[in-house]
Amino acid sequence: MIILVSVTAPEFITTAPLGILYVGGALKQAGHQVEVLHFTPDEIERRAEEIAAKNPLFVGISAFTCNQTKFSAELSRKIKARSSAPIVWGGVHASLVPEQTLSEAFVDMVVVGEGEETAVELAAALENGRAMGEVKSIGYKKDGCLMFTGERPLIDDLDRYRIDWDLIDIERYLVPMWGRRRVINFVTSRGCQFKCGFCYNLRFNRGHWRGHSTQFVLNELKSLKERYGVDGVRFYDDNLFGRKKRALEILEKMDLPWEGEFRVGYINDELARKLADTKCQGICFGIESGNNRILKLINKGQSVEDIIRGVEVMAKYPQIRFSATLILANPTETRQEVINTVKTCLKLWRIHPRIQVSLGTFLPFPGVPLYDEVIKSGYVPPQRTEDWEVLNRTYRKRDLPWAPWVTDRDQEDFIRATRYALLLSLGNLRVPLVSRMPYWRLAHYNFALPLELPALEWLERKFEDRQSALSRIMRRLLPYIGRRGRLAKSET
Fold it and tell me: Which residues make Cβ contacts (< 8 Å) with residue 233, sequence separation at least 6?
């Protein structure tokens, strides 16, 4: 028995743990009995007892560099106190900081990079008593020393492995969206060929993009429809359009509504029209900044003008929901550049009627190109695995030595700007104070005494919950305004 685990914050518990489902599928193909566990932190005590009682060949724990590291560290300690089963960490965090992760007393081994081939070799070595040094892409402990065996090549033919949905209760992950009832998260590719200076992909996927074949993806989606009644897909690819022709063929032939991430530089009139024709419900653009200097610094490969142009094209298709992610307090960024980014959010909202803006501060993931820059600025990275929870996009105050001008008051402003940006959709309501307040706050970068903020957030949640009676009433009595002319020109 091999047990694979992902401990997830409650808000993500309906997102299937695709990484360990791939690894579990590979282990099953090799003849192993596998159990996949996906649970929230409040279950750690009970689950640790269950895992220890089963005495598995090993416990594989997958964690991204965020609060998952804290949850996973707590689980690992509790298992270690009850069992001698090897605890093996894998996923993004163990791959970004393998030495520190392996140094922890509650970790016996780490898997660096993709896990399918490594997990199968590791299981065989543990079963047969072979030396750990024969298994590529792992770290292990020997006589008190940390030993690493060197990375294996990236998997070239992804079609050799698939998500094994039989390892979970898929009903937990079929969620209502867009008027559909059984929408699932799914992935068709790995990595990204772009070299953004803040992204973990440059380390984890070595700056490469690889995809399943078109027919493989279509067969998998057909199976999901026939076996489980899946009626919509949320693509979790880092770059769904890594190969444009392939992506369009999948989207055109699968006959399912969908949403996914997208590079704004890809957008033109022809492609936008095709997206609409493929039942696209929403796309997320990594906008990142409203300053060309910062976009060049982070090697985004796009300009503010490219961003505006792409959003203008997508505004012709208001039925497609549009979200944008932006970063505040990048290395060397000034206060005025932060304000420019916030005002860019407003410019995008004026262009597109259904934009949702997500702001967050720069997160210094180890191993990414900008990491050396923040270390030079005096940034001291977390010294314990659980402390990496600070790299969480959900904003809170943290040490930002790469932006030395930032005070506690500035950090409060960042938090409030993030919250008000998420309220811009209220500007579509014909209620003067409600519709104008988030916009006014952001336009003037004035967040003093935000007494109205909790009430507006409550109203926005109700407005966006299309199943609630209040939302239905608001949408009947307070219809959307057109995408232009919402606010007086003097407010822009």
Answer: 183, 184, 185, 186, 221, 254, 256, 257, 258, 259
Domain count, the chain: 2
- What's the CA angle centered on 102, arms 98 and 103, to 5 degrees? 120
- What is the pLDDT confidence band of residue 53, given thresholds at 50, 70 and 90? very high
Which tens digit of pLDDT belongs to each residue from 296-348? 999 999 999 999 999 999 999 999 998 999 999 999 999 999 999 999 999 99
Q: Is residue 261 part of a domain?
A: no
Which of 103, 119, 148 terminates a domain? The answer is 148
How many beta carbons lie within 10 A of that of residue 398, not counting itself? 14
Q: Provide the token pair at 261.
A: 């991430």
| CATH classification at residue 45 | 3.40.50.280
In a domain, 270, yes or no: no
Q: Round to whole Å and give the CA distance between 353 and 475.
A: 15
Does residue 296 lie within any of the structural domains?
Answer: no
**Three-class DSSP category at 135:** coil
Domain holding 16, by residue range, is 2-148
In a domain, residue 57? The reply is yes
What is this structure's pTM?
0.92
Based on the number of CB atoms within 10 Å of its own CB, is 309 exposed (0-12), middle (13-18) or buried (19 or more)? Answer: middle
